[in-house]
Amino acid sequence: MKLGLESLDYIIFFVYFVIVASYGFWVYKNKGKQTADSKDFFLAEGSLTWWAIGSSIIASNISAEQFIGMSGQAFQLGIAISVYELVGAFSLILIAVFFLPMYIRNNIYTMPQFLARRYDNRISTIMAVFWLFLYILVNLTSIIYLGALSLETMTGFSFMACATFLTVFAIFITLGGMKVIGYTDVIQVVCLVVGGLATTYLALDLLSDKVGTGAGIFEGLSLVKDKADSHLHMIFAKGQYQVHDGQGGMIDAYNQLPGLLMFIVGGQWIVNLNYFGCNQYITQRALGADLKTARSGLLFASFLKMLMPIIVVLPGLAAYVLFQENADLAIVEGIKEGGIVKPDNAYPVLLNILPTGLKGMAFAALTAAIVASLAGKANSISTIYVLDIHKKFFAPDLSEKRMVWLGRVSIVVSFVIALAISPLLKNLGQGFQYIQEYTGFISPGILAIFLLGFFWKKATANGALAATVLSIPLSALLKVQIPDMPFLNRMGTVFWICAVVVVLISLIEGKGKDSEKAFTVDSSWFKTNSSFRVGAILVTLVVLAIYTIFW
Q1: With the CA atoms of 311, 314, 318 and 321 taken in that order, what torsion angle do they form, in degrees rounded to the nearest 10?
Q2: What is the pLDDT of residues 302-325, one digit of tens each?
Q3: Does residue 251 sit in helix, strand or coil?
Q4: What is the pTM of this model?
Q5: Whether the Cβ atoms of residue 146 and residue 253 lie closer than 8 Å to each other
Q6: How far apart are alpha carbons 467 and 483 in whole angstroms?
Q7: DSSP per residue over 451-497, as a string?
């Protein structure tokens, strides 16, 4: 299989690079405050519009783990992997209605700050450290790894050269602060949507040409339906069918997406509510805006989220059919490494056989998604470190200028660490599952203490602390003792145990009284305007329709 882009592809990518870099520099110089201001740097306070907030949320969310990892799982599992996007779209609605008012009305700017105000500094500090490790060692590292893997396949350059390029590009964007990230993310989202849709179109057209009569994309869709029926079910039964695990073996598809039980036990809800509602690098975009603007931004993000199955799942399905039919030797050889089927190779290999010019567009779209996500995560790392660790414990009187400087230093340091670790992930079977499973060690406890902290006034600091400390070892214990338990069901089980622990300790300790640190909540906070309600209903109907069609 021929590797490398043609001159036209590099020209198209260079144009994209110049536009993003130039616009970022213009935003830095012409929008907002020119003096060093920590709220402006970390939150872009008051300067992001609803469409910038929504675009930036999706740009941070959709990255290499979706383009590469989720397409790989579409190759492996089929359309069912869309559950992350569909439930994510619905979760954004819930978060806009119920979570955002709790943050914005109480002037919360970081997740550890919420924990400190609602509980105490012990929980805040523990979680700040946990989040830093998670964001650097799991999120940044895995995005650099998956992104570099895809660029290596497309360009023929070495893995480390691609990883270094992505890192340097992301640092350039991130050092401008949240304002630059937010507005350049609008361009990034346009690139990833247009480029992603073009890739889907060409993948289906290629499928039609190689397996069918060459009639076009609708024939390609028909071929997916006819030749990948096992991949067109949203709900799996235990033992329904075996899929490649990316390490040379086979695994029950149910172990990764355990049917209705992942909704009943709650694992799928925990993934999405924690990711979009208790996650600094997602909520940070909305926390500097007023409630109406922030809600509109999350609604816009919800609509964009529903495009993602078309952009990232359909190409994986097309690659699966081509691979099964041995319709293109380049695809068959590219997806296999040493005789082992590697689902994560499906999307990069598919990109590599696109026509010249369009390959450059796809290259730009993929890079846009990777860089935007890296920038958002790195900004959140710097926010938590400076505001919740350094300022609190080392320099309480830190000046605004010094906070911004420290934020930029922490950005560079976190990127260097992630870049150094990223090659170690090469032994993974499935990158997307790695991210979901190991993030899931801590997310059940986090979501439990956030939900109870929001809506149950009796929750105490010691109860929350117990759940915080319990989440990781309990998850690890269940993984070792019950290895056949699907990780989503494990997350749900740990969540309910943590919630019960918080309730029991709080009732015993507080003797049934409300906590002194409970927030005062006004029911009017949860009221929304008519346009938001119409949008929320549309999202709900689309999600229900897809599940009905592909049940």
Answers
A1: 160
A2: 999 988 888 888 888 888 888 877
A3: strand
A4: 0.85
A5: no
A6: 22
A7: HHHHH-TT--HHHHHHHHHHHHHHHHHHHHH-TTS-HHHHHHHHHHH
